[in-house]
């Protein structure tokens, strides 16, 4: 029983990270019908930013929640800028181009960031260890299962960010404009909504959440690697599809299910299936319910 | 003299090999209701879309209050004081009625008093304010679409087939409201297949046929022209 609960707890905390990344895929898809394959690279860059700035702060601060929040803020700002630039430089010039061009560009941007980061004067191809921002300790135990302070942090931060996102999307003018643009871009422009600015805002928002995910991942598994974004991004993408791409609550649900599935596979099957399970889920979803758990099937107008 | 609001000069638009508009010119002055009549496929919607810069011009100039719009974007044109209620109404169905209205006023900060005015004009909307806009009936959606456009504070309102798919009684109501909006100081360029109704409320009219303007003049002149009557007003 203790083992089962332990897997649930681990699954939820891993799932929250997937959820944070999946939201970015889903929001961008909702607005541009584009799978932004470079999104996983933003997660990786968040860890790279943390890797470089943490030593400066570590010179003045001890590992603590405060240090974590400082590094997180830097990573969020950095990734927000990266997200803005990716859209501005790579996708905006293709606004009127066929969707396949955008998709190929997205893959290109992803590869560009990966290989640029691997250059020796940028970060390098060799994985590095991520500075310790917080020391891991057992926070409390439930029924024999241990919950670490990092897991509490993951859950708490994810929850706060998702509530904040919900507030932005439903209560602020720009958030409402995001929903308007994702429902109907043409009508939104006719209402005087500056569509390009709303799209930029969406990329920034998604990238800021990705930055949180990256910093959390590297805090839990203290490693930075220029290629770490690929698998994380792909799994989060599967989570977004599972939840119903385009739907924010769907992305959260999909992320949690994915995290849980992965954790149970590792626990009860074999850790060598850790990554396979994600793609098994993808295949099943596409066969059984292509619109995802919370997605609505769209009728394409011709 | 009333100010010239919209001036369309020799505008041509084509979709691939199909020429949708061929050297079309028209004007709308301050205070007017102008009807744009013509059969299906004559190019009426294309003209309104080209005015809002939703389709690229092949040729010609469109200006609003003397300003050339060729470098403006759709959302920028709305700010300048022109709004289009598109065919099919373009309601944001997953958002509430209130949010739809709020989006109409996106570029403004001082719209609360205008909201009151719009709700007086369309009382049914105040009952439905927190409902999803997708649950409204066709007539209510049309009122929402017009109310939403008014909230962008336009000088000129472009209406694309406001009577489409509505019951005759509701159509009458909509046209009464169009006149009311006009008397409040908003000029109107109106597309209609229901030419009878349109010509009744309009001051002037243009008739479009396969991309050309074939007639224009005061509304009563158009409606008394026997040939046009046969062709567009059903005898």
Structural overview:
The complex is a heterodimer of chains A (302) and B (235). By secondary structure, chain A is mostly helical. Chain A has one domain. Helix content of chain A is 71%, strand content 4%. Chain A is built from eleven helices and four strands. Chain A has helices at residues 2-32, 39-58, 65-91, 99-118, 149-171, 173-183, 185-190, 195-220, 228-243, 248-269, 276-288, and strands spanning 128-129, 138-142, 145-148, 223-224. In chain A, the strands form two sheets. A two-stranded antiparallel ribbon of chain A has the order 1-4. The model of chain A has no long low-confidence stretch (mean pLDDT 94). With 235 residues, chain B is α/β, with parallel strands linked by helices. Chain B has one domain (4-232): Rossmann fold. Chain B is built from ten helices and ten strands. Chain B has a six-stranded mixed sheet with strand order 6-7-8-3-9-10, sandwiched between helices. Chain B has a four-stranded antiparallel sheet with strand order 2-1-4-5, covered by helices on one side. In chain B, α3 runs parallel beside α6. The mean pLDDT of chain B is 93. The chains are: A mainly alpha (302), B alpha/beta (235).
Main features:
heterodimer; A: 302 residues; mainly alpha; two-stranded antiparallel ribbon; two-stranded antiparallel sheet; 11 helices; 71% helix; B: 235 residues; alpha/beta; Rossmann fold; six-stranded mixed beta sheet; 28% strand
